[in-house]
From TrEMBL:
Gene designation: lptG
InterPro entries: LptG, LptG/LptF_permease
Cell location: Cell membrane
Species name: Erythrobacter fulvus
Cytoplasm recorded as keyword: no
Transmembrane segments: 20-41, 68-87, 107-125, 287-307, 313-330, 342-365
Pfam families per record: LptF_LptG
UniProt-recorded name of the protein: LPS export ABC transporter permease LptG
């Protein structure tokens, strides 16, 4: 029986159902509370755009909710683990299971299986829904919650917050749509700098297109910093050294691309000799991130064992919560280190997971003993 992790079908379904209900309950609670707080901060900006109303607020909520659900799903699994295990311990159900001959791993097996399925669902949810919500919301925010420029058919999605350098000069755009020579930039700013780094001229335009070479700004407004004068022009070509291929590579947001799209982007960057550490770390984290839900039952298992009447159940729950939150802190720190090259990308994404997997297994074995 010790080698059979699911000795009872009835017990497995009972624990799995209890765990799933608590995961969903905690997740819905967290998303609703955080979404309400987020709407309090953003509603003013949304309604400030001409023509916006309740429909746009609901649209923002529909785009923001998947982001919150993806980010806080592992926290929900952690809290659901603690609630489930504390309840089982208080009702002496853990004692009954161990008296029936189940080991600690067999008690946790239904929870680990459920967490593995949650991790799989989280990966699919991130790839199909969250990445698209990220791209749309960032483009909408860059347009100050106004109309988003539509991407041309077959040319890819709208991207936001484009920032490029051409020698000493700087080109920035709120949004980018299209690809190659069909790229269209909106809310464009061009900063001409002196050799000392001081900005000499600032040129703003609502729209810019490729002029082969350079980028033609429509109805630009030129501001001369030295003379503090403003001049309106019909058209102006800037950034003659910036090719569409360079802009395509620069205007990449890893959070808005799927796992497979990000793989192609990394290959393109490597072929162009560009730095890929940040994108590769996020690529690996697309796998290790959802798997963090699998760790939570293991890290919270300390709350399941030990007698409830010993008076240490609350302390055990606090320790389990501390272990879970410590994982998220270490994971974020390692990912930040990997983004700027402090850690190898693979190590940055997987080291926290493997470290806390061993730590959780050690705690479980010591607790059982």
């Amino acid at each position: 029986m010790q080698l059979d992790f699911f000795p009872s079908r009835t017990l497995t379904l009972y624990l799995a159902k209890m765990f799933v209900v608590r995961i969903l309950s905690v997740l819905v609670m967290l998303v609703l509370v955080l979404l309400a707080l987020d709407l309090l901060a953003e509603t003013g900006d949304i309604l400030a755009a001409p023509g916006n109303g309740q429909a746009e607020i609901l649209r923002y909520a529909s785009l923001r909710a998947p982001q919150l659900a993806s980010r806080f799903l592992p926290y929900s699994v952690l809290l659901a683990t603690l609630i489930t295990l504390v309840t089982l311990n208080q009702n002496s159900e853990v004692v009954a299971m161990k008296a029936a001959g189940l080991s600690a791993h067999q008690v946790l097996a239904p929870l680990l299986l459920t967490a593995a399925l949650v991790s799989l669902a989280s990966f699919g949810f991130n790839e199909r829904i969250v990445t698209r919500a990220n791209a749309t919301l960032k483009a909408w925010e860059a347009a100050e919650y106004g109309p988003i420029p539509e991407a041309q058919a077959g040319t890819g999605q709208v991207r936001s917050n484009v920032y490029l350098t051409d020698g000493r000069s700087i080109l920035s755009a709120a949004t980018l749509s299209g690809r190659g020579e069909n790229i269209v930039l909106t809310n464009v700013s061009w900063y001409e700098r002196a050799p000392s780094g001081i900005i000499r001229e600032q040129i703003r335009s609502p729209r810019a297109t490729y002029a082969a070479p350079g980028w033609r700004m429509e109805n630009p407004v030129l501001f001369d910093v030295a003379g503090a004068t403003t001049e309106r022009l019909d058209t102006m070509v800037v950034g003659k050294e910036l090719s569409p291929a360079q802009i395509d590579l620069q205007a990449i947001d890893p959070d808005s691309q799927s796992f497979w799209e990000l793989s192609d982007t990394i290959a393109a960057f490597e072929a162009a000799g560009r730095r890929t550490e940040e994108m590769r770390a996020k690529w690996w984290h697309r796998l290790s991130g959802p798997l963090s839900a699998l760790l939570m039952p293991l890290l919270g298992s300390i709350a399941a064992f030990g007698l409830a009447r010993s008076g240490q159940l609350f302390v055990r729950a606090i320790i389990g919560m501390a272990l879970g939150f410590a994982y998220f802190v270490v994971d974020n720190a390692a990912l930040a280190m990997g983004s700027f090259g402090g850690y190898p990308p693979f190590l940055a994404a997987w080291a926290p997971f493997l470290l806390f997997l061993l730590l959780g297994e050690t705690v479980l074995i010591r607790t059982e003993e």
